[in-house]
Protein backbone atom coordinates (compact mmCIF):
# COMPACT_ATOMS: atom_id res chain seq x y z
CA UNK A 1 0.00 0.00 0.00
CA UNK A 2 1.27 3.43 -0.76
CA UNK A 3 -0.04 6.86 0.04
CA UNK A 4 -0.68 7.30 -3.64
CA UNK A 5 -3.62 4.86 -3.74
CA UNK A 6 -6.54 7.27 -4.04
CA UNK A 7 -9.78 6.88 -2.13
CA UNK A 8 -8.70 3.74 -0.28
CA UNK A 9 -8.44 5.11 3.20
CA UNK A 10 -11.81 6.78 3.05
CA UNK A 11 -13.68 3.73 1.76
CA UNK A 12 -15.97 2.29 4.38
CA UNK A 13 -14.97 4.71 7.11
CA UNK A 14 -17.85 6.30 8.90
CA UNK A 15 -17.58 9.58 10.72
CA UNK A 16 -18.81 10.09 14.27
CA UNK A 17 -19.79 13.06 16.39
CA UNK A 18 -17.88 16.36 16.25
CA UNK A 19 -14.72 16.02 18.35
CA UNK A 20 -12.92 19.27 17.48
CA UNK A 21 -15.07 22.41 17.34
CA UNK A 22 -13.32 25.63 16.48
CA UNK A 23 -15.50 28.72 16.52
CA UNK A 24 -14.53 32.24 15.54
CA UNK A 25 -10.94 31.91 16.67
CA UNK A 26 -8.78 35.03 16.65
CA UNK A 27 -5.07 35.17 17.27
CA UNK A 28 -2.67 38.06 17.05
CA UNK A 29 1.05 38.33 17.67
CA UNK A 30 1.62 42.01 18.42
CA UNK A 31 -0.09 43.77 15.52
CA UNK A 32 0.15 40.70 13.28
CA UNK A 33 -3.40 39.33 12.97
CA UNK A 34 -2.58 35.67 12.35
CA UNK A 35 -5.94 33.89 12.73
CA UNK A 36 -9.07 35.73 11.60
CA UNK A 37 -12.44 34.33 12.64
CA UNK A 38 -11.41 30.73 11.99
CA UNK A 39 -14.17 28.14 12.40
CA UNK A 40 -13.83 24.44 11.72
CA UNK A 41 -15.58 21.31 12.94
CA UNK A 42 -13.89 17.93 12.74
CA UNK A 43 -15.82 14.74 13.39
CA UNK A 44 -14.59 11.61 15.06
CA UNK A 45 -12.65 9.48 12.58
CA UNK A 46 -12.33 12.33 10.13
CA UNK A 47 -9.07 13.28 8.42
CA UNK A 48 -8.72 16.95 7.58
CA UNK A 49 -5.74 18.18 5.58
CA UNK A 50 -4.79 21.83 5.91
CA UNK A 51 -2.62 23.47 3.30
CA UNK A 52 -1.69 27.00 2.41
CA UNK A 53 1.40 29.02 1.76
CA UNK A 54 4.02 29.72 4.40
CA UNK A 55 2.86 32.24 6.98
CA UNK A 56 -0.87 31.64 6.40
CA UNK A 57 -1.42 30.54 10.01
CA UNK A 58 -1.50 26.73 9.73
CA UNK A 59 0.98 25.99 12.53
CA UNK A 60 -0.58 28.63 14.76
CA UNK A 61 -3.99 27.03 14.33
CA UNK A 62 -2.64 23.58 15.30
CA UNK A 63 -0.77 25.09 18.24
CA UNK A 64 -3.95 26.83 19.41
CA UNK A 65 -5.87 23.52 19.22
CA UNK A 66 -3.18 21.90 21.37
CA UNK A 67 -3.06 24.92 23.66
CA UNK A 68 0.57 25.64 22.93
CA UNK A 69 -0.72 29.14 22.16
CA UNK A 70 -3.57 30.96 23.86
CA UNK A 71 -6.30 32.43 21.70
CA UNK A 72 -7.53 36.03 21.75
CA UNK A 73 -11.11 35.30 20.75
CA UNK A 74 -13.51 32.50 19.92
CA UNK A 75 -13.50 29.00 21.41
CA UNK A 76 -11.85 25.67 20.78
CA UNK A 77 -13.37 22.46 22.06
CA UNK A 78 -11.25 19.39 21.49
CA UNK A 79 -11.77 15.84 22.73
CA UNK A 80 -14.45 17.01 25.13
CA UNK A 81 -12.47 19.90 26.65
CA UNK A 82 -13.03 23.61 26.27
CA UNK A 83 -9.33 24.19 25.70
CA UNK A 84 -7.71 26.24 28.42
CA UNK A 85 -10.99 27.15 30.09
CA UNK A 86 -13.43 25.81 32.62
CA UNK A 87 -17.07 26.82 32.78
CA UNK A 88 -18.05 27.90 36.29
CA UNK A 89 -21.51 29.33 37.05
CA UNK A 90 -21.93 30.21 33.38
CA UNK A 91 -18.59 32.02 33.29
CA UNK A 92 -15.35 30.94 31.71
CA UNK A 93 -12.33 30.69 33.96
CA UNK A 94 -8.80 30.12 32.66
CA UNK A 95 -7.25 26.84 33.74
CA UNK A 96 -4.07 26.31 35.70
CA UNK A 97 -1.10 24.98 33.74
CA UNK A 98 -1.50 21.52 35.28
CA UNK A 99 -5.10 21.38 34.13
CA UNK A 100 -4.13 22.51 30.64
CA UNK A 101 -1.51 19.73 30.57
CA UNK A 102 -4.24 17.23 31.42
CA UNK A 103 -6.33 18.45 28.48
CA UNK A 104 -3.34 18.22 26.15
CA UNK A 105 -2.96 14.51 26.88
CA UNK A 106 -5.95 13.72 24.71
CA UNK A 107 -4.23 15.35 21.73
CA UNK A 108 -1.17 13.88 20.05
CA UNK A 109 1.12 16.27 18.21
CA UNK A 110 3.75 15.39 15.63
CA UNK A 111 6.10 18.17 14.54
CA UNK A 112 8.21 18.71 11.48
CA UNK A 113 11.40 18.28 13.49
CA UNK A 114 10.58 14.97 15.31
CA UNK A 115 11.67 16.35 18.72
CA UNK A 116 12.77 12.98 20.14
CA UNK A 117 14.88 13.02 23.30
CA UNK A 118 18.39 12.33 21.93
CA UNK A 119 19.94 10.83 25.06
CA UNK A 120 17.46 8.00 25.64
CA UNK A 121 16.58 4.93 23.60
CA UNK A 122 13.65 4.63 21.24
CA UNK A 123 11.58 2.58 23.67
CA UNK A 124 12.30 4.99 26.52
CA UNK A 125 11.21 7.88 24.30
CA UNK A 126 7.91 6.09 23.77
CA UNK A 127 7.29 4.98 27.37
CA UNK A 128 8.33 8.24 29.05
CA UNK A 129 4.89 9.87 28.78
CA UNK A 130 2.83 6.81 29.71
CA UNK A 131 5.07 6.01 32.72
CA UNK A 132 5.94 9.50 34.03
CA UNK A 133 2.78 11.39 33.18
CA UNK A 134 0.05 8.76 33.00
CA UNK A 135 1.64 6.69 35.82
CA UNK A 136 1.11 3.46 33.93
CA UNK A 137 3.11 0.34 34.93
CA UNK A 138 6.44 0.23 33.13
CA UNK A 139 6.10 -3.35 31.86
CA UNK A 140 2.69 -2.60 30.40
CA UNK A 141 4.00 0.60 28.76
CA UNK A 142 6.94 -1.29 27.27
CA UNK A 143 4.67 -4.02 25.85
CA UNK A 144 2.52 -1.34 24.27
CA UNK A 145 5.56 0.51 22.95
CA UNK A 146 6.74 -2.68 21.23
CA UNK A 147 3.34 -3.12 19.63
CA UNK A 148 3.45 0.51 18.46
CA UNK A 149 6.96 0.06 17.05
CA UNK A 150 5.68 -2.92 15.06
CA UNK A 151 2.78 -0.82 13.87
CA UNK A 152 5.08 1.91 12.52
CA UNK A 153 7.34 -0.70 10.91
CA UNK A 154 10.25 -0.51 13.36
CA UNK A 155 10.00 -3.71 15.42
CA UNK A 156 13.77 -4.07 15.77
CA UNK A 157 14.65 -0.53 16.86
CA UNK A 158 13.58 -0.41 20.49
CA UNK A 159 17.14 -0.16 21.82
CA UNK A 160 18.43 2.24 19.16
CA UNK A 161 19.12 5.90 19.96
CA UNK A 162 17.55 8.61 17.81
CA UNK A 163 20.90 9.56 16.20
CA UNK A 164 21.22 6.00 14.87
CA UNK A 165 17.98 6.34 12.93
CA UNK A 166 17.15 8.01 9.63
CA UNK A 167 14.82 10.99 9.60
CA UNK A 168 11.95 8.83 8.37
CA UNK A 169 12.55 6.32 11.16
CA UNK A 170 12.76 9.09 13.78
CA UNK A 171 9.49 10.55 12.60
CA UNK A 172 7.83 7.12 12.83
CA UNK A 173 9.11 6.83 16.41
CA UNK A 174 7.66 10.29 17.08
CA UNK A 175 4.28 9.06 15.79
CA UNK A 176 4.53 5.95 18.00
CA UNK A 177 5.41 8.17 20.96
CA UNK A 178 2.35 10.34 20.39
CA UNK A 179 0.12 7.26 20.01
CA UNK A 180 1.44 5.80 23.28
CA UNK A 181 -0.55 8.44 25.16
CA UNK A 182 -3.74 7.09 23.55
CA UNK A 183 -4.79 10.43 22.11
CA UNK A 184 -8.30 11.00 20.79
CA UNK A 185 -7.08 13.33 18.05
CA UNK A 186 -3.72 13.46 16.27
CA UNK A 187 -2.31 16.74 14.99
CA UNK A 188 0.49 16.69 12.42
CA UNK A 189 2.43 19.81 11.46
CA UNK A 190 4.24 19.21 8.16
CA UNK A 191 5.48 15.81 9.35
CA UNK A 192 7.40 15.04 6.16
CA UNK A 193 8.77 18.40 5.14
CA UNK A 194 12.12 17.91 6.89
CA UNK A 195 12.66 14.50 5.30
CA UNK A 196 14.68 13.41 2.31
CA UNK A 197 12.31 12.55 -0.55
CA UNK A 198 12.90 8.78 -0.33
CA UNK A 199 11.70 8.75 3.28
CA UNK A 200 8.47 10.63 2.81
CA UNK A 201 6.31 7.69 1.78
CA UNK A 202 7.33 5.50 4.74
CA UNK A 203 5.92 8.16 7.06
CA UNK A 204 2.85 8.88 4.95
CA UNK A 205 2.06 5.15 4.77
CA UNK A 206 1.98 4.98 8.57
CA UNK A 207 -0.35 7.99 8.61
CA UNK A 208 -2.64 6.45 5.98
CA UNK A 209 -2.82 3.26 8.07
CA UNK A 210 -3.69 5.33 11.12
CA UNK A 211 -6.49 7.05 9.23
CA UNK A 212 -7.86 3.67 8.15
CA UNK A 213 -7.96 2.54 11.74
CA UNK A 214 -10.32 5.39 12.50
CA UNK A 215 -7.99 7.96 14.09
CA UNK A 216 -9.21 11.54 13.94
CA UNK A 217 -6.43 13.52 12.30
CA UNK A 218 -5.72 17.14 11.42
CA UNK A 219 -2.74 17.21 9.11
CA UNK A 220 -0.89 20.25 7.84
CA UNK A 221 0.86 19.01 4.73
CA UNK A 222 1.52 19.82 1.13
CA UNK A 223 1.70 16.12 0.24
CA UNK A 224 -1.25 16.03 -2.08
CA UNK A 225 -0.89 12.26 -2.57
CA UNK A 226 -1.68 11.87 1.10
CA UNK A 227 -4.59 14.28 0.83
CA UNK A 228 -6.05 12.32 -2.06
CA UNK A 229 -5.51 8.98 -0.32
CA UNK A 230 -6.61 9.75 3.20
CA UNK A 231 -8.39 13.09 3.59
CA UNK A 232 -12.10 13.46 4.00
CA UNK A 233 -11.70 17.19 3.62
CA UNK A 234 -9.00 19.53 2.41
CA UNK A 235 -8.77 23.11 3.61
CA UNK A 236 -6.81 26.02 2.26
CA UNK A 237 -5.73 28.74 4.64
CA UNK A 238 -4.82 32.12 3.24
CA UNK A 239 -3.68 35.05 5.33
CA UNK A 240 -5.23 33.72 8.55
CA UNK A 241 -8.57 32.63 7.10
CA UNK A 242 -10.01 29.41 5.74
CA UNK A 243 -10.76 30.27 2.12
CA UNK A 244 -11.56 26.81 0.73
CA UNK A 245 -12.99 23.69 2.30
CA UNK A 246 -13.92 20.73 0.11
CA UNK A 247 -13.63 16.99 -0.39
CA UNK A 248 -10.29 16.14 -2.06
CA UNK A 249 -11.80 15.52 -5.47
CA UNK A 250 -13.49 18.91 -5.56
CA UNK A 251 -10.51 20.63 -3.97
CA UNK A 252 -8.15 19.44 -6.68
CA UNK A 253 -10.43 19.56 -9.69
CA UNK A 254 -12.95 22.33 -9.07
CA UNK A 255 -11.79 24.70 -6.33
CA UNK A 256 -13.91 27.79 -5.82
CA UNK A 257 -11.26 30.15 -4.54
CA UNK A 258 -8.75 31.91 -6.73
CA UNK A 259 -6.26 31.42 -3.88
CA UNK A 260 -6.65 27.63 -4.17
CA UNK A 261 -6.12 27.69 -7.93
CA UNK A 262 -2.98 29.75 -7.47
CA UNK A 263 -1.75 27.48 -4.65
CA UNK A 264 -2.34 24.32 -6.68
CA UNK A 265 -0.64 25.77 -9.75
CA UNK A 266 2.49 26.25 -7.64
CA UNK A 267 2.65 22.85 -5.97
CA UNK A 268 1.26 20.40 -8.55
P1 LIG B 1 2.36 28.67 8.64
O1 LIG B 1 2.46 27.50 9.55
O2 LIG B 1 1.13 28.65 7.78
O3 LIG B 1 3.59 28.86 7.81
P2 LIG B 1 2.46 30.23 11.06
O4 LIG B 1 1.25 29.87 11.83
O5 LIG B 1 3.75 29.62 11.48
O6 LIG B 1 2.20 29.98 9.51
O7 LIG B 1 2.67 31.78 11.10
C1 LIG B 1 1.65 32.70 10.82
C2 LIG B 1 2.14 34.10 11.15
O8 LIG B 1 2.31 34.21 12.56
C3 LIG B 1 3.46 34.46 10.52
O9 LIG B 1 3.40 35.81 10.16
C4 LIG B 1 4.45 34.24 11.65
O10 LIG B 1 5.56 35.08 11.50
C5 LIG B 1 3.63 34.62 12.86
N1 LIG B 1 4.04 33.90 14.08
C6 LIG B 1 3.94 32.56 14.29
N2 LIG B 1 4.35 32.23 15.52
C7 LIG B 1 4.73 33.39 16.12
C8 LIG B 1 5.26 33.72 17.41
N3 LIG B 1 5.45 32.79 18.34
N4 LIG B 1 5.52 35.02 17.66
C9 LIG B 1 5.30 35.98 16.74
N5 LIG B 1 4.81 35.73 15.51
C10 LIG B 1 4.53 34.47 15.19
MG1 LIG C 1 3.93 26.05 9.74
From TrEMBL:
Keywords: ATP-binding, Nucleotide-binding, Transport. Residues 20-264 form the ABC transporter domain. Transmembrane segments: none annotated. PROSITE patterns: ABC_TRANSPORTER_1, ABC_TRANSPORTER_2. One of its GO terms (molecular function) is ABC-type amino acid transporter activity. InterPro entries: AAA+_ATPase, ABC_ATPase_HisP-typ, ABC_transporter-like_ATP-bd, ABC_transporter-like_CS, MetN_ABC_transporter-like, P-loop_NTPase. Belongs to the ABC transporter superfamily. This is Polar amino acid transport system ATP-binding protein/glutamate transport system ATP-binding protein. It comes from Jannaschia seohaensis.
